[in-house]
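Progress note, sequence design subtask.
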């Protein structure tokens, strides 16, 4: 089982993330941010990963530090659980629709951080959740999981739908990338020999 637990504590946030890449989508979230819990649930369910997130952040300021630091801690846990990357697909992609919305996520477990994020949200906030923080979450994840991540929202009028298609496609793409290819057993999926 590829699993890891990371605790990360700063003066702004205290976060513990557990992840099992070979799970069944069982999740538990306690972040104080209902919408973020709903999005994290999409990653676990569609990524078929077991994920637990406990977070106490400085929400009296706003949700920025909490969301960014959950992205960072999830990225650290993901990288640790992934191990040596031998035999994995390495690349993953998915298109996910939800009614009128459609998003595409393409990623490479490259060992290099890179985020290309293209989404024009139709609202500034979803409930009380500032949509700017979705980019912050993925930037935190990418910087610490060392992933190349291209996110494009291709269509959508409802910003809840736009966000949800991004997180579902991200989960699906991660699942594809971490899955072992039996023909690649024991082989590093790079001509360089390391990732
Ligand atoms: Mn929803």
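Output:
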């Amino acid at each position: 089982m590829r699993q890891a637990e990371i605790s990360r504590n700063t003066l702004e946030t205290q976060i513990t993330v557990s992840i099992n890449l070979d799970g069944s989508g069982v999740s538990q979230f306690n972040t104080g941010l209902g919408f973020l819990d709903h999005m994290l649930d999409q990653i676990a369910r569609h990524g078929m990963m077991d994920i637990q997130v406990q977070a106490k952040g400085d929400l009296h300021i706003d949700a920025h530090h909490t969301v960014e630091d959950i992205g960072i801690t999830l990225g650290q846990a993901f990288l640790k659980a992934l191990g040596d990357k031998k035999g994995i697909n390495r690349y993953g992609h998915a298109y996910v629709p939800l009614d009128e919305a459609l998003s595409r996520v393409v990623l490479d477990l490259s060992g290099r951080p890179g985020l290309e994020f293209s989404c024009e949200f139709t609202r500034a906030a979803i409930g009380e959740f500032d949509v700017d923080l979705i980019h912050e979450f993925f930037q935190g994840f990418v910087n610490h999981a060392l992933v190349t991540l291209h996110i494009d929202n291709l269509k959508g009028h409802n910003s809840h739908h736009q966000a949800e298609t991004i997180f579902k496609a991200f989960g699906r793409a991660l699942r594809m990338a971490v899955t072992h290819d039996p023909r690649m057993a024991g082989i590093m999926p790079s001509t360089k020999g390391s990732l």
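The beta strands are 3-9, 13-20, 27-30, 50-57, 91-98, 101-108, 114-118, 125-126, 129-130, 148-155. Work on this subtask will continue into the next period as scheduled.
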